[in-house]
Design a protein that fits this description.
Distance between the termini: 21 Å
Largest sheet: 6 strands, antiparallel
Order of helices and strands: EEEEEEEEEEEEEEEEEEE
Helix content: under 10%
Strand order of the largest sheet: 2-3-4-11-6-9
Number of strands: 19
Strand content: over 45%
Radius of gyration: 17 Å
Number of helices: 0
Length: about 210
């Protein structure tokens, strides 16, 4: 198993494809072409209403990290309002989507968490959890070219692996896990203090 601890110095900020916001790229599998990736994990800030960039052939999942609520108007689907307590919302990147934020504090934008995978080659799953006291068991993908990614949004989380190895991931930091061995693909997550908010992503080839 290969573990890679990542922090703000490893992340890359870039403008949105439509020029109306900024994304912080946490991890990516790059490829030639207009969109430039097979998969990408990122955060972004949203402060004003506006459209999302269009990504044809991309599956997306979106969740709220902090800062308020975000109402999405998705082409052909009912509106949905996302909060820090709602499950991540999945939709096709080719759909026309606009968002309307409701900020908790004036002038402080919403932070969201976004996972995108190219539909013809990759698939992903995204969950968000608040850890309070008990341990959360996380099953890691153990297939070829699969990987897992943990992002800690708040607090500090202790990750304990099958062999007893332990790592701690603080707020604003991440852990990438590659080359997981079958039979050793379960770990436990525990908040180091009162609570911790984490986003857990798995990616695998179709």
């Amino acid at each position: 198993m290969k573990l890679q601890a990542l922090g703000p110095a490893d992340f890359l900020k870039m403008p949105w494809k439509n020029g109306q916001g900024v994304t912080t790229e946490l991890a990516v599998a790059r490829r030639p072409g207009e969109d430039g990736f097979d998969w990408r994990i990122s955060t972004a800030t949203v402060a004003v209403p506006g459209p999302f960039s269009v990504f044809a052939g991309i599956d997306r999942s979106l969740a709220i990290v902090r800062g308020g609520t975000l109402t999405l108007n998705v082409e052909g689907l009912p509106d949905v309002t996302l909060t820090t307590r709602t499950a991540p919302y999945a939709f096709g990147g080719e759909l026309a989507v606009s968002s309307t934020p409701a900020l908790e504090a004036d002038g402080v934008p919403i932070d969201d968490f976004n996972v995108m995978t190219r539909r013809d080659g990759w698939q992903h799953a995204l969950t968000q959890h608040r850890l309070e006291g008990g341990a959360l068991t996380w099953t890691l993908p153990a297939t070829t070219d699969a990987l897992a990614f943990l992002y800690c949004a708040h607090g500090q989380v202790r990750v304990t692996f099958h062999d007893g190895q332990t790592l701690t991931v603080g707020a604003g930091n991440a852990l990438r896990i590659d080359d997981v061995d079958a039979g050793a693909n379960v770990c436990e997550l525990v908040a180091d203090a009162t609570s911790a908010d984490v986003f857990l992503t798995t990616l695998a080839r179709r």
